């Protein structure tokens, strides 16, 4: 009571005089939070409607979810100025225009576009998968929308509490999505591994956040940054430990080595649309959180996290690409495992500009955002083609793609284009430009050794991307009857139009970005954060 009394007395006096009373009431900018609110509201709507919709009408829930994600993405357009914030500190003596819990700035809007757009493509792939795998529709769509809402909230979070809550809202539904296929041993095992690793990451992050709060007395990122620069000597070790533990927690989420062990088994055991979702949106969540805590909250300790992230980047890209090289063409699940290990390698590239920001300033972060946008479009496209191929060849082997051009020329051309974008080869110009941008960020920051490691890894990755691309155009082995005799194979059917729409949407996005890379790469030349 003795702590609260002065503030209470001041507030009463302000109210009596008619001055400052309004400052105690927070105004909510509903337009700024509309993308998150719409996504969450549609998720609740789907969960309730599932109780009343008959079984034969369950696909309607999927289309409601698709429409909700499209509407949430559309609400980003009125926010394109990037000048809104809400849930700010108020009250006499506490007001701080820079200390807001939610900011709809350019960085947040770009990542929200990536998250909601990726969730929309995932929803298109899931419309058919949910029905054919007989997964519970209401629960599936509710979990997907809930995870997307948390992922959309995270880039706009500007305090550590909101950041952790958003991270968990994005992650917790994903555990259930991975294990959604009932009776599937691989799916249950994948969900358990994902759950255990994520819980560990959250526990470590919370420990780090508690240490940072103890050292600074604030959770708002801007205030934490100011106070970490003037931490008393007796609290310096506590603050440093908090920074290190927080970064370790987010490294789990980004699948950085040595915290990557859950990735291949989780991707193989999850439904294919969910694996694609985790490979893009899951990584976006981890990297966004990592950017916010390092660049905004912990710049005073850049000498700690800068070298650490540089080493993590080198280890991650090297081990990811080395493991991808070892994938056998005849191994069941080999195609998904290759995409999983490829995503680990790509995570290493995404870490490079964040490490460079410790040496050359926050402008380097634009390179990570540009690369993430490219990666999201082409990797979701690759998973969309994999979902199409899996309809007739459910073993997910690399050998299943041999001669795909003879069966489905457009799908094989799309897959080849996606793989060339990931490799950074023409005509995948956006992949090439994105890699050059990341490479330049390392050079500009004076991290020449990291640039050399990246260059070597890019060359190594060319082998397995080109090997897969070559398979698409090789002569098929055996005749159609022999192909149909493959264990678990299904009769060839026409591609569902939602899957086709997902492939077309991602391919069109990659083509537009390859034709006009400045649409994304302009973010690499300037700061996405207000100075």
Explain the overall architecture:
By secondary structure, the protein is mainly α. It has 21 helices and two strands. It has helices at 4-17, 34-49, 59-74, 106-132, 137-153, 160-178, 185-216, 221-228, 236-254, 263-269, 272-297, 302-325, 334-360, 365-389, 404-407, 409-423, 429-444, 448-472, 480-484, 497-515, 518-521, and strands at 84-89, 96-104. A two-stranded antiparallel sheet has the order 1-2. The longest helix has 32 residues, at 185-216. The model is unreliable at 1-22 and 479-491 (pLDDT under 50).
Helix proportion? 55-70%
Order of helices and strands: HHHEEHHHHHHHHHHHHHHHHHH
How far the N terminus sits from the C terminus, by CA atoms, comes to 39 Å
Taking pLDDT < 50 over at least 5 consecutive residues as the criterion, the unreliable ranges are 1-22, 479-491
Radius of gyration: 24 Å
Number of helices: 21
How are the strands of the largest sheet arranged? 1-2
State the major sheet. Answer: 2 strands, antiparallel
Strand content: under 5%
Bulk shape: globular
* Helix/sheet category: mainly alpha
**Mean pLDDT rating:** 84
- Report the strand count: 2
Oligomeric composition of the shown chains = single chain
Please name the defining characteristics of this protein.
531 residues, disordered N terminus, two-stranded antiparallel sheet, mainly alpha, 21 helices
Give a brief outline of the structure:
The protein is mainly α and 531 residues long.
Q: What is the secondary structure topology, with strand pairs?
A:
Blueprint: H1 4-17, H2 34-49, H3 59-74, E1 84-89, E2 96-104, H4 106-132, H5 137-153, H6 160-178, H7 185-216, H8 221-228, H9 236-254, H10 263-269, H11 272-297, H12 302-325, H13 334-360, H14 365-389, H15 404-407, H16 409-423, H17 429-444, H18 448-472, H19 480-484, H20 497-515, H21 518-521
Helix pairs in contact: 2-3, 2-5, 3-4, 3-5, 4-5, 4-11, 4-14, 4-20, 5-6, 6-7, 6-11, 7-8, 7-9, 7-10, 8-11, 9-11, 10-11, 10-13, 11-13, 11-14, 12-13, 12-18, 13-14, 13-17, 13-18, 14-16, 14-17, 14-20, 16-17, 16-18, 16-20, 17-18
